[in-house]
Amino acid sequence: MTLSSAGWSPWVALMVVGSLYVFGGSRAKRSLSSGRAQCEALAGAAELPGRMVVIGDLHGDRDALVEILVAAGVSDASCEWRGGQDAVVVQLGDVVDRGPDSEGANACLRRLQASAPGAVFRLAGNHEVIWAEGDFRFASRTETPAVRSRLIRMWLDEVSAGNVVGAYAAGPVLFTHAGFRPAMLAKVSPDPFAQNPASVAASLARLVNSELRSAVEKCSGIRCAFEGDLFSAGRDRGGNGVGGTFWTDFGILLDADADALPAGLVQVVGHSAARCSARASPKCEPIRARQDLAAVCVDAGLSVAYASNRAYLEIRNGTLVTLTRTVGGAWRERDLTAEACASDNNPPDSDGRSPPLQDAL
């Protein structure tokens, strides 16, 4: 990663350890308080919109997108905004590849965003990145070269215009496609003067967005080369890099020691599709989370190319709630915040995982 392109000097990176631990004091204190840090940050987050609807990877399934938008009450079937003044929609990228209608899914998101300026945030995923690099190995047969070229050109223009971003921050919640793993956090640092998780989230989002725009500016036509740590794949995805925010498997965040993640920061990501079927098994939880809420994965496997699940996340005044269409077609709600913030009735196991959610992996 070229940190200087984002206005970051080398000495900042050297301050990562101190800046990531500033919120919890000593390591011993962090070990005792980290399970509560996210709860406290969410409870006190005045910056969060009243209601956020968060949608994971679509992979060419417009029908799945429309069904979620309608179920959440933020759109009608034509993809026109119906969410009112207080709602916000965040889509976590990977709109293209695998499924049959990447063009339709993109068109729906563009229309939704155009009809609600400032209320719809569209993130870039690794599949948009690899399309811009000329890698179409996962493209559906319906995605002809002409369709792919058209979508890439529009995507590049939208990144340049700020309609598609690499990250979005709302209070202590950081939205990226795949998340900051500890090894990646060790490569960069949030603002060394930040004193709260909201400042960390905002700093990291600015870094990702700056790096993405800078990379797009260097593209030749519709062919790009996304270089540096931020765009690298780790060994978990067959690469040799650190593993940036477009390529981190959720298992990396799930297994990370609490002390290796910034206290109070809630990372909401996609990228790692749920493989179970919520309409076939009552045990399936397509949206997965760490017990301490330091990381939540919203890639429910929406696409027909996966499990065709229907699930999304809502953040209601700082409360994280999953909504999943289950056996029989009913929508089930699960309050992740209540579970995480309860008084030690449901502690995480030794690796930080939440036992009730593990059945879904």
What does this molecule look like?
There is one protein chain. The chain is an alpha/beta fold and 361 residues long. It has one domain (9-358): 4-Layer Sandwich (Purple Acid Phosphatase, chain A, domain 2), CATH 3.60.21. Helix content is 32%, strand content 14%. The strands form 2 sheets. It has a 7-stranded mixed sheet with strand order 4-3-2-1-10-11-12. It has a 5-stranded mixed sheet with strand order 5-6-7-9-8. A hairpin with a 5-residue loop joins strand 11 and strand 12 (331-335). The two termini are 32 Å apart. The model is unreliable at 1-33 and 344-361 (pLDDT under 50).
Main beta-sheet annotation: 7 strands, mixed
The largest beta-sheet arranges its strands as 4-3-2-1-10-11-12
Helix-strand pattern: HHHEHEHEHHEEEHHHEEEEEEHH
CATH class: Alpha Beta
Q: Please tell me the CATH architecture by its name.
A: 4-Layer Sandwich
Question: What's the CATH superfamily, by name?
Answer: Metallo-dependent phosphatases
User: Would you tell me the overall average pLDDT?
Assistant: 86
> What radius of gyration results from the CA coordinates?
19 Å
What's the CATH topology name? Purple Acid Phosphatase, chain A, domain 2
Distance between the termini: 32 Å
